[in-house]
């Protein structure tokens, strides 16, 4: 796997979820027979993921191309209790210019308007981020529905979605009620997700499964399928707040469900691994998995996002090493 990946420009369709050629997922009626038929061979999943890095690699200029592509797929995120408006503004500045100009010049892509896929914040800072990103075409994603536990009253969660959309969020990252999965109440999960999708209006909805709380890969697969049936545009691994977040085995299972859903309905569904993806080596493994399982189309930001806060700094360091032969300190790559 040595081909270069074309870097998405900010003004191109894949640079954001809005204005692209992929229609919203309308969902479908809940098919419990399909859900109940799901089976997962855990040992086969683990074996497939263990051999992934040994069989595929990208080097030198090709690796730089893949990493630049990964930057355009990052949901640059701050979800901390001590967030402030100024921190969010700095994050937005970094999202618009994620790689230092001298590095882009050395890579020969200074003419490309490279940006991250989105900026992800709590509802409180949606309006701040929307204002800071005005004119950039970078959407604001709001975490919602009682993030991260998802245990607020249902009506409160729906109102939170509506408030974020009213403030300008173009994407909503919802969290499901894990109890529905753990008790096998698939109808309740389906109805919950349908309500969330309706509350989003024109905003795209990413369903966070919090896979570290779901206990089994089979539960992950079934929850993925039910959320897609209910209209999720993306399925996302984690909030980043669980004890176990994105892993390759969990991701493989979710990608297989996306492939199965597409085969049945023709609908393209996006994927967002989140939590624990902090190095360039990590992100390359996920990109390779995406390409092998779903194909080249799923390497674009309208179908792939990485939920991350520290990943960008390591990618920028790796790109600087590629052009200078030296690693720099992290403080040379500030947030904004």
UniProtKB/TrEMBL annotation:
Gene Ontology CC terms, in alphabetical order: cytoplasm
GO molecular function, one term: deoxyribose-phosphate aldolase activity
Signal peptide: none
Superkingdom of origin: Bacteria
Gene3D superfamilies (UniProt xref): Aldolase class I
Annotated keywords: Lyase, Schiff base
Region of interest (Disordered), ranges: 1-22
Pfam families in the record: DeoC
Catalytic reaction list: 2-deoxy-D-ribose 5-phosphate = D-glyceraldehyde 3-phosphate + acetaldehyde
Catalytic EC class: lyase
SMART domains hit by this protein: DeoC
EC assignment: 4.1.2.4
One BP annotation, GO: deoxyribonucleotide catabolic process
Classification via InterPro entries: Aldolase_TIM (IPR013785), DeoC (IPR011343), DeoC/FbaB/LacD_aldolase (IPR002915)
Pathway given in the UniProt record: Carbohydrate degradation; 2-deoxy-D-ribose 1-phosphate degradation; D-glyceraldehyde 3-phosphate and acetaldehyde from 2-deoxy-alpha-D-ribose 1-phosphate: step 2/2
Keyword Lyase set for record: yes
Keyword Protease applies: no
PANTHER family noted in UniProt: DEOXYRIBOSE-PHOSPHATE ALDOLASE
Assigned protein family: Belongs to the DeoC/FbaB aldolase family. DeoC type 2 subfamily.
Name of protein: Deoxyribose-phosphate aldolase
């Amino acid at each position: 796997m040595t081909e270069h990946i074309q870097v998405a420009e900010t003004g191109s369709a894949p640079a954001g979820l809005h204005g692209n050629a992929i229609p919203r997922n309308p969902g479908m009626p809940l098919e419990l027979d399909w859900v109940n038929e799901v089976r997962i061979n855990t040992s086969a999943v683990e074996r497939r993921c263990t051999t992934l890095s040994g069989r595929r690699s990208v080097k030198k200029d090709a690796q730089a191309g893949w990493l630049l592509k990964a930057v355009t797929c990052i949901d640059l995120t701050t979800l901390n209790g001590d967030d402030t408006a100024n921190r969010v503004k700095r994050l937005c500045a970094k999202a618009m210019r994620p790689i230092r100009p001298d590095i882009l010049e050395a890579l020969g892509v200074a003419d490309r308007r490279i940006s991250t896929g989105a900026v992800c914040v709590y509802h409180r800072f949606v309006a701040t981020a929307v204002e800071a990103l005005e004119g950039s075409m970078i959407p604001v994603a709001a975490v919602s529905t009682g993030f991260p536990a998802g245990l607020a009253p249902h009506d409160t969660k729906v109102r939170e979605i509506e408030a974020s959309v009213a403030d300008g969020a173009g994407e909503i990252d919802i969290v499901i009620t894990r109890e529905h999965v753990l008790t096998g109440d698939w109808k309740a999960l389906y109805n919950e997700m349908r309500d969330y999708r309706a509350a989003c209006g024109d905003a795209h909805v990413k369903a966070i499964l919090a896979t570290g709380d779901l206990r089994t890969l089979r539960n992950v697969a079934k929850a993925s399928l039910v959320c897609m049936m209910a209209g999720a545009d993306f399925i996302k691994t984690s909030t980043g707040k669980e004890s176990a977040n994105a892993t390759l085995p969990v991701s493989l299972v979710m990608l297989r469900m996306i492939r199965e859903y597409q085969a049945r309905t023709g609908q393209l569904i996006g994927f967002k691994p989140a939590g624990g993806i902090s190095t360039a080596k990590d992100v390359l493994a996920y990109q390779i998995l995406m390409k092998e399982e779903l194909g080249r189309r799923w390497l674009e930001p309208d179908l792939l996002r990485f939920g991350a806060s520290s990943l960008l700094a390591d990618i920028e360091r790796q790109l600087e090493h590629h052009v200078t032969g030296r690693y720099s300190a992290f403080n040379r790559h500030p947030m904004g």
